[in-house]
Amino acid sequence: MGSAGPFLYILGKLTHNLMDVYDQTTRTNNTFRYLSQKRIYMNRERIKTHLNRSIHEFPDIQIIPPGSLTSGETASAMISLLQSVYVNHGIANNREAVKKDLESGSLRTWLAKSDGEFVATASLVKQTNGDVELGRAVSRKKGAGKILMASAAISHIESDRPKPIVAEVRVADEFWGVPNSFATQHLCFELFDLIPHAIAPFFSHGSPLRNESFVLARSDRTDRRTVSELAREPLNNRNMNGSPIGLTIIQTKPFKIVVPKENGRSLDPLSLEEDFMWKEGFTLFPIETTDRNLPLIGSLLSNPRMVLCGIDHFLGKNDKPIVFIGTIGADTKMANTKITEAISQPMRRDLQTIADKFVSLGNQKK
Question: Residue 193 — φ and ψ, nearest 5°?
Answer without folding.
Answer: 60, 45
